[in-house]
Amino acid sequence: MSGDFLALAQPGVQQLSPYVPGKPVDELARELDIDPARIVKLASNENPLGASPKALAAISAELAQLTRYPDGNGFALKSLLAEQCRVEPDQVTLGNGSNDILELVARAYLAPGLNAVFSEHAFAVYPIVTQAVGAEARVIPAIDWGHDLSAMLEAIDSNTRVVFIANPNNPTGTWFSAEALDEFLQDVPERVLVVLDEAYIEYAEGSDLPDGLDFLAAYPNLLVSRTFSKAYGLAALRVGYGLSSAVVADVLNRVRQPFNVNSLALAAACAALQDSEYLEQSRRLNEAGMAQLEAGLRELGLGWIPSRGNFLCVDLNRVAAPVFQGLLHEGVIVRPVANYGMPNHLRVTVGLAAENARFLEALAKVLARG
Ligand SMILES: Cc1ncc(COP(=O)(O)O)c(C=O)c1O
Q: Is 126 helix (H, G, I), strand (E, B) or coil?
């Protein structure tokens, strides 16, 4: 007789819903028998520019070394990050995407009987990594779609080990100020690790968003996570990083896979980090695209949640699922966010001008059908 391997999984895992990624272009092309070249994907907050030419050159150069394991300590990338981020190399943890950093935190600091606090409508990976290790996910109601930091503080108890906060948050795009972050960090008990997820921070530079790095020295219980998947345009390579006290970095280093970041990703990330022109171009493209989307939505009489990321959530004022399906038939992939408790919204990533225009046209067409 065979065992019930669902019932045998640990209880937190049994209750987990797997992460639902944006629909891949090839999948839609197969399903609807349309030319993949005609499909616009604005579903995963990817950089529409294509990777930095410098990153591509670094990858080509690295290909000759494919038989070798990567540098398991990521010396070159950690050194560059340390310099740019004003920390020591032993405060840097490299991850297979910043998702990996979130998972390492959960594995190192959470367990059954302990809990992690995070907001309603926050990034879907927080509940996954928390429940996967059998810890309690304490979800705090949002305020105006954003984090209610005071309510999150109140939810912390003696079993809380981690708080996840995202600035700006995905999928809502909402953000909090430097003052709010400072107040929050002052009040969080010192034994609670605050994970400040800054996956989109490069898009927010020069705005009223705080730079998490400014708080690292004062708060040894702070970990800032960042990624090369968004503004640096390297989502496929899976590389992200955490910046924290050396003690926390040492703990995370104990539980990570020995070669969690591959050599192509390491080389490309080093090159991308030094390509400030590419980053600047990505930011400008995002700013212009965001303005284009906002103007188009205004024209359609639709609302949206103001966002500091490279995406925004459109308020359709009705159940969004049929509109999502209608857009797919127009060859436009966006992201439904019902699984984030937002059944009337669709999240759209800022694309190239022509892609944004395709989305707006398709949306107008689908909505006109009623
Ligand atoms: C808020 C937030 N954090 C972290 C990530 C993880 O990205 P990656 O693992 O590609 O670095 C994402 C990706 O969508 C995100 O939106």
A: helix
